[in-house]
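Changelog-linked ticket: arginine example.
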Amino acid sequence: VAFSLAKTLKKNPIEVAQEIKSEIEKNKSKYIKKIEVAGNGFVNFFLDKNIYFDEFKKTSGGKIKKINIGKNKKIIVEYSSPNIAKPMHIGHLRATIVGDFLARLYKELGYKVIRWNHIGDWGTQFGMIICAYKKWGSKKEIDQKPIETLLDLYVRFNKEAKENETLHEEAKQEFVKLEKGDKENKKLWQWFVKLSLKEFEKTYKLLGVEFDVIKGESFYEKDLIPFINNQKKTKTAVMSDGAYVVMLDNQKLPPALLQKGDGATLYMTRDLVSLVHRIKKYKPIEILYVVGNQQIMHFKQFFAVAEILKINKKTKTKHISFGWILGEDGKKLATREGKIITAQSLIDEIISSAYDIVDQKRTDVSKKEKEKIAQAIGIGSLKYNLLKDYRDSDIIYDSKKALAMKGNSHPYINYAYARISNILKKTKKIGVGNFNLLEDLDALIIKKIFSFEEILIKSAKDNTSNYLTDYLFELADLTNTWYEKNQILKDENRERKNARLVLIKNICSVLERGLEILGTKTLKNI
Ligand code: ARG
């Protein structure tokens, strides 16, 4: 302030700072301990820690209040969106976990949230799978290992099609038949969809992730051609090399393809029609699409076309992009044979590593109990690990670090939580406390508790989870230092001890609430 004022007043900044200091000192709040002019014009304020203690008392012991910035606002959060007949890959896993976090966050902020899953169940690749199944498929094998077998069929199709060009033509015909409602093909397709959804459901259940709307791209099929015809009529869609496209030269983007020369519709077309449907049916103020950053161009084009068509006049649309999950060597995660790592295998691996840890530490419980604990630790650690970085950065994934007791990890937060909640367990009733007896470290913790709300709002502004994980990590860290410094239960000053017990209750509820928004649980709630 002094620097900018100095310019207008044509004075020396130090002089201005001195004046600010003496003006404030004339009518100083009791919470300002000292004001000092530093450097060549800075004004430093030293607050009395009682400002935190008094505020803490006023707000009934710092209970988290309900934030209602989203009142009467509806938001659609789209996430996960895997593809039928293929396994959910780790990109879908990150989308699922980030999207679930965002859905929880917006709900916490008072929004009405619609959790949306846009399943990839339509497109020419289904012609290929049907064709491959008719040639080489076995019902028995698919029933036993549905996704794996369907993926094998798809891979085999592509391999054989390289040598035999007629295969692509055959696959195209199979898809045309499917589009026209051919009974046999429709039945096969429905069967593939059912098997895949069943498999996805298992993963969602394990992760504790839910949806309000699960809709395949096929849902929009009947509206695709009328939609394209409309764009042709108004000349928004124009013919280019036999296909219909929307030109996006003004937006400095390549043209968006709506219909191929052979009449087939595209991923883009289905996204546009789905947007029309979502807005008409739900009237949300915003739609978030949690999809990997390989699709940045797709979303730019998609939103540009939507704007030209004035589809989303009252609804904001945002691509919530995220980076890759890489192995320790910085390369894409793959098995030793070079196959892609599926979401399920990553989950299985961390649960089994968690089991080994639990097995060593908890000799007091049954195998079944150990499995239950391992699952909770494994899932919680995996989610936390995938949420702790800014969403657009790539993650170097290492399950050992995710499960480590030290560092910015789920186990570390739970460790701090367990230590202090154990104190509460040993306490029958908390008597009257005097917060003004507390010390600097207590004040720091209270300050941190008060900033929880601000962190949530900031997280929603940038739609990223790392502010919250950083916050929880810092709170856990402070709590551990505080715990080690103060012998809380042994404190002979009753009033101070009670004040600290109230503080513990508050730390616990912030940690619980924070983890809940990340989609995980404290170990107590398992
Ligand atoms: N199924 C697509 C994929 O796996 C993701 C869909 C993303 N959502 C969307 N509205 N385009 O790549």
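Closing comment: Example verified and attached. The mean pLDDT is 95. The radius of gyration is 29 Å.
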